[in-house]
């Protein structure tokens, strides 16, 4: 996906250019080694240097659609909880052609730009709506809109699996995988319906459009980008033979991962949770080491729940949070008298 707020660097001295080249090389090494601390330090250093330059005219972002997968993955470094934070809104990051980290099969990576939104809702049985520029996230300086067929938690499973395959390939290059690879990894049914559900989800991901607008520091300043999560999709389904999916993600997808970092989600934990609400909360809180309190109504709106009664949603929320305690992801949760939802992540030293 293309992204706003990223500018080409210009007007640098030869000394600065050589410094940025060194930082870019070290960033790539830190990412491949899974060293999140070093990655964050280098990102800050790079942002500091590029922030000294006057930004050039912003590049108009572009995004497209995608397809399927297939080659054997490379050996991945040990997973790490990597969340480099954005240091400057207009910082330029080094150009690389792969996702900024690799991880083991025990995890799935997801950019925080998406993980902290309501893009994937928890509905299951209701007919899917066709949306037009619906706000899925809004903060003081960023608004994320979505247009297309409504996306749900199972669609998020598919996108996480796409990113999991993508980590072994260059962005912009088509790669392929079998439908069985997808279904097995996500623990979906391998019958006819499983394939149909997978193909429908891939079609939604390639057909929808994300729009991100980020405001600047001065009145009237803004940076805008839009595109699809999957830039190319091709499905070759032979009933008595192969079921091959070819996918391509645009190189600009990388900017989603670099803007506000990314999170590694424990895949076994996620798949052990049967409720869409539980998976939503597990994914959201995975991106926060020390989650802040949220209003119950905020949680309801973010999840896209159609439960209208506050008491009923509170009951469902408590059950979902308890399931996160049961798998050892949370150590505690409570909803206070002001209807604010508090959770505490389980620390490594609390694990038995």
Q: What can you see in these coordinates?
A:
This protein has 352 residues and is an alpha+beta fold. The chain folds into 2 domains: 14-265, no CATH class; 273-352, Arc Repressor Mutant, subunit A. 36% of the residues lie in helices and 21% in strands. It contains 11 helices and 14 strands. It has helices at residues 14-32, 36-50, 112-115, 153-166, 179-186, 192-207, 253-259, 267-272, 276-286, 296-303, 310-326, and strands at residues 107-111, 120-121, 130-138, 142-149, 151-152, 175-178, 209-215, 222-227, 232-237, 243-248, 262-266, 294-295, 330-335, 340-345. The chain has a 4-stranded antiparallel beta sheet with strand order 3-4-7-8, covered by helices on one side. Strands 6-10-9 form a 3-stranded antiparallel beta sheet. The protein has a 3-stranded antiparallel beta sheet with strand order 12-14-13. A hairpin with a 4-residue loop joins strand 13 and strand 14 (340-345). Helix 1 (14-32) packs antiparallel against helix 2 (36-50). The radius of gyration is 20 Å and the shape is globular.
Q: Secondary structure elements and their pairing?
A:
Blueprint: H1 14-32, H2 36-50, E1 107-111, H3 112-115, E2 120-121, E3 130-138, E4 142-149, E5 151-152, H4 153-166, E6 175-178, H5 179-186, H6 192-207, E7 209-215, E8 222-227, E9 232-237, E10 243-248, H7 253-259, E11 262-266, H8 267-272, H9 276-286, E12 294-295, H10 296-303, H11 310-326, E13 330-335, E14 340-345
Gist of the model:
By secondary structure, the chain is an alpha+beta fold.
